[in-house]
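Our consortium's second objective concerns turning raw sequence data into structural hypotheses that experimental partners can test. To show how far this objective has progressed, the report includes one record in full. It was chosen at random from the queue rather than selected for favorable results. The single chain below, 228 residues long, was entered without modification.
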Amino acid sequence: MIRLENVSRSYGSGAKTVAAVRDVSLTIEAGSFVTIVGASGSGKSTLLNLMGALDRPTGGRVLLDKHDLSSLSDAERTLLRRTRIGFVFQFFNLLPTLTALENVALPARLARMSKKSTDKRAAELLDRVGLGARGKHRPDELSGGEMQRVAIARALMMDPPILLADEPTGNLDSNTGLSILDLLRGAVEAHRTVVLITHDAGIAQRGERIITMADGQLLRDEKPTHTH
């Protein structure tokens, strides 16, 4: 479960202070698929970074299960991110010099797990996202949709209970984007919590709950108008 209590995040100081997130309180239940929608600059990426312990709030608390993220040391936050949270980004963030298999295996290699077991799991995950035959290909040999599938497999490598996705379909055509959404929905069916950021209202409708942000605040919190 993810819980935000009166969370604010400001950047800069004095007259140049920008309030990216303003006094947001929100609870996201374990195993749910929540989409966060809003215009560019509405604070949705900042909110996701706060949930993912990539950033610290300037006010309020972020709780992951029972952990208050602000009470953790940098090392504890890094460990939490590595083991409890999978990240998927708009620009894939794959390492260009590594193969698809090596990119997927990377989180486990960073955690110093054995190469044999991590390669086996990475291969299984590539199979699961439909890229079993592409393990030896580097990112520049893959399409955008394939790179995003590799990124999702990598996010699942440590079997995290939470997946945070920032505009994961932003660089993809609509059909490819829908196949990526299906993969994320599959992660929810495996009892993971998925939070997906998008500026596309159609994609937002595919969540179980839609949170609309504007000017750093929650504008609406509603169920989709139609189910898929």
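The partners drew two points from this record. Helices lie at 44-51, 74-84, 100-110, 115-128, 144-155, 174-189, 201-204. DSSP finds seven helices and ten strands in the chain. Both points have been shared with the crystallography group to help prioritize constructs.
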